[in-house]
Amino acid sequence: MKPITASLTALFAFAILSLEGSDRFITLSNLPMGTKEEPLVLRTYFPDPGLGREVMANHDLGFRARKYSPGKGDVDGFVDPIRGIPGAIGVNFGSELSICWDTTECRLLYAWQGGFLDMTQYWGKPESGRRKGFDYVPSLVGELIYLARGSHPVGIFDHYTEAPKPVFTGYRIVEGVPEFSCQIGKATIRVRIEPGEKPLEIVKKYTIEGAKEFGYFESGYKFKEEKTGPDTFTITLQGKPVSSEGAADEDPDYSTDNPNAGWGEALYTNLGCFACHSKDGTRGHGPSFAGLFGAERTITGFDRPVTADESYIEESIVNPMAKVVDTYPAGYMPPYPIDKKQIKSLTLFLKTLANE
Amino acid sequence: MKILPVLLLAASTLSCLRAHEPYSIETIPFPEGVPPEVGAIGFTPSGDLAVALRRSDLIIATPQKDPAKFEWRLFASGLHNACGMHIVSDHEIIVSQMAELTRLVDTNKDGRADLYESLASPWGMSGNYHETNHLVPDGKGGHFVAIGTASHNGPVFYNVKGDYSKVGRRGRNFSAATWKGWILHIDREGKTTPWASGFRMHNGILLDSKNRLWAGDNQGDWKAATPFYHVERGNFYGHVSSLVWDPEWNPAIDPLDLPLEEINRMKTPAAVLLPHAEMNRSASEPVEIPEGTVFGPYGGQIILPDNNGERLSRLMLEEVDGVYQGACTHFFQDNGLRPGNNRAVFSPDKTTLYIGQTSRGWGQIAEGLQRIRYTGTAPFDVKTMTLTPSGFRLTFTKKAAKGAESPENFQFSRHRYEDTGNYGGDKLDESGIKILDVRRVDDRTIEIDLEDLDDGGWVYGMKLDGFRSADDQPLRTGLFYYTVNRLKK
User: Fold this and answer.
1) What is the number of other CB atoms lying within 10 angstroms of the CB of residue B28?
2) pLDDT tens digits for B230-266?
3) Predicted ipTM?
4) Domain holding B448: CATH number?
5) How far apart are CA B225 and CA B351, in angstroms?
6) Distance CA B398, CA A205 (A)
7) pTM: predicted TM-score of the whole model, two decimal places
8) From B113, B118, B129, residue closest to A168, measured CB to CB
9) Which chain A residue has its CA at the smallest distance from B174's CA?
């Protein structure tokens, strides 16, 4: 993970200021902070520290767009999307815990310790107030201790088909802490997230109504589950310093428009390929990318094997149903209508994973 | 409440009372260190002023005679750039923030909202900073919400809230995410109906006392000048990118590739076109002047603030042949007013106009809160400019001096605009118009006949100079533009 730093002096100075008065206004300080007693809630654009596509499943995907000149129309060059989360809510409990909870996925996306956000990029310097540059997403202050993986941790098992999309219905401030509320089908899920008693602990207090059967599963993190009532339970999640595994921590290099393996690797993360296709040979929902390029593939319904060459890769991206590898389910992967340069970049990335 | 408002003496006591000045202006400070970036303003039923700020907070104060003595308290916080506000009661405020329509309720009546209920979130968010919105209540528990487009000066995110359109992403200002460039109607149950399209940055909509819906827009691509529209359901108002979200739109067609004639055929013209250099660059929240004379002689007309200039425009509208059109002029220009004029609201007693200012994230620093009061000194001004079959009729606020009807006091010209994908537009085919006759109808009314009068969106410019009122007051303003959509028979 990239180290996230900020001036501790500035942080300290603001912490003192923010304790004055019962009405704590947001000021010109670009390092707003709450306390454990009086957490600070802030909706803004949030940084995306490398969330996978399977976590952001209910978001649509922004794409690279051709540069546009109002006088000439399309011109040479591209404008790439940037990493960011549009509709999340942040809560800061002082240096102990900050969380980013999303209103589209209706779940905790990540948590960190040490500080909250540096808003300079978005709010601008105090003297001008102008957002900075083209990429104005605020930056995290502190160290990540939790990064969501996999599908929603709360499973509602009343649905025999795919669960309906969650719908955010708001939050209520309970003893200073927001209790987020969302609807999944007929079930209402409410959750309060607070710092735990031990270091790196995150406590999630759930109330679930209108569901017959539900369960909680958190992939990649240890947690304790405690039933506190007929509709309520508490999860104590053990956070840990987040490594870069499964998440791209460096911004992809888009300095060139030419297809390249680095761009392909970034797409592998950003498009969520990694959710199904491993890099190390592990079997997932789809075939691993390790040793894939140039190998012979056994295709369901085909008499003889097919070589995984450039055209095979392209076809498998834009029309995944055309050739389904034996023993894998058909129709699992949606078509990805990405452009030629992106396809080429992904192919170059796959070549780096090919067997010698 | 321990943080006291700072006495910004120089600023707060600024009032520009010249001889005959019909309006006074004062600056109202915010608590120290609070960035006064005003996204929305409104009054509670008990007469308190509520202000939503760009970064997070919604603050409230009881208006004071001394502008430095407002004591601000926090009603809600954590809002993402709330730019629309509907105050339901002393304990309930509905705001449109970047992601959603949110109902803020102070359920335990301790002065601070504790319930933040998401009422509806039908529009998307591409991640672009420019996609701000505005709302007006529909009077039936629902709202009209104006959803601004994104700017090419900012990016989109990989993760987009709502749906993403590759075609909508093209262009200078663009509609990459759901419903950008539209006005939506969201009823009290949260059901959304797309109402009208073709907007660029309609940073201000108004449902007037006669239940007519109006929207300004910001000059730019597809908006050669600053337009003011009468908004009706199903209409398209010219900014093409929004069309990609029309359920009837053929997705194979990129609206930017449509021929200009086709776009012009599809679009509903503006009721008033305000030349951007002379009048108004960036229309923001329109507000209806109270009937009667409590705020001067312009009761029933509309004030349209300029987010870019140190000015407010005044609109004189009329319905001709079933179509709205009319004139614009300066209502306030300089006179101590700051730039960044973003939101406007009248005090409950209708005597005072509060103006909230911001430009943060857009342009140069220009922010704060000011209020304008009528001093009771009636200005000498053109109260209404209306079309006649042969020219224009001017009705003055008071008796004009003898000789006012002398033709050399009047100058007329006309020009037109062409909306294109380019930013803004020049005055086209500009020419002087010959005056055939000027006659005084009565003490306060003068009619002018022109040689050439044409419809179809010609903008007629009028300059007045060289005469005073019968009681020797100078004219308050001398520059007017009338947009002729239809001729009078």
Assistant:
1) 27
2) 999 999 999 999 999 999 999 899 999 999 999 999 9
3) 0.92
4) 2.60.40.1220
5) 32
6) 70
7) 0.84
8) B118
9) A68
